[in-house]
Specification:
Strand content: under 5%
Radius of gyration: 17 Å
Helix content: over 70%
Mean pLDDT: 83
Largest sheet: none
Number of helices: 9
Order of helices and strands: HHHHHHHHH
Distance between the termini: 31 Å
Structural class: mainly alpha
Low-confidence stretches: none
Number of strands: 0
């Protein structure tokens, strides 16, 4: 049981800055502006379900996919380090996550829960790379259960944050949200460096 809780905690801690639930609220609020409250609530929970589904699938089947493609874990970790580090740097030096045509297309969609919210904004390549690396680092049924539970916990947090977090983001304002985004960006950059270190160490073995 202690091993399961340790992996669950590690999964939650690794995914929290990468999925960045608070930062996702601002995008979610902008893309659902003007929609009926009931529809917005449903999309908040659907986003959480979609994030959980994507990450659980890659946590359980990601290594099989890598083996089928002939990709080593070290290569995944180094590639993941680049993606995660780039995401963290972009949060430290803010830029638009979607260009204007993408934003207009997203606003016109009847349901934004899977795309663009779950993919690629929340459960993007960085989060996918992290859960695959965690699954490779923690083999065994108990450890996999811990990873899945960690994903479910972070997904519930995302759903709750999207459902009730808009007033908090409004109170924080652009300055507060920007400061929080930069803190998360630094943490993501650190995770990217750690992934790279693990990848380089694996290559030396």
């Amino acid at each position: 049981m202690s091993g399961l809780l340790a992996v669950l905690t590690a999964t939650f801690a690794a995914l929290l800055p990468i999925t960045n639930p608070l930062g996702a609220v601002a995008t979610f609020a902008a893309l659902t502006a003007g929609q009926e409250p009931g529809r917005v609530r449903r999309q908040a929970w659907r986003t959480a379900v979609d994030v959980a589904a994507v990450l659980v699938v890659f946590a359980l089947l990601g290594m099989l996919l890598l083996n089928a493609l002939g990709v080593s874990l070290a290569s995944l970790q180094i590639a993941g380090a680049i993606v995660v580090g780039h995401a963290g740097f972009r949060m430290l030096v803010p830029s638009e996550q979607m260009n204007s045509p993408e934003q207009q297309h997203a606003r016109s969609k009847p349901d934004i829960s899977f795309s663009p919210m779950a993919l690629p904004l929340i459960a993007g390549p960085g989060a996918i790379g992290v859960v695959i690396a965690l699954a490779a680092r923690h083999p065994g049924a108990e450890a996999r259960a811990g990873i899945v539970l960690g994903i479910l916990v972070i997904s519930v947090l995302i759903g709750v944050t999207l459902r009730w977090g808009t007033p908090l983001v409004d109170r924080m304002g652009p300055t507060g949200t920007g400061a929080m985004t930069r803190v998360m960006g630094f943490l993501i950059l650190v995770i990217g460096v750690e992934l790279g270190v693990h990848g380089i160490q694996a290559l030396k073995l």
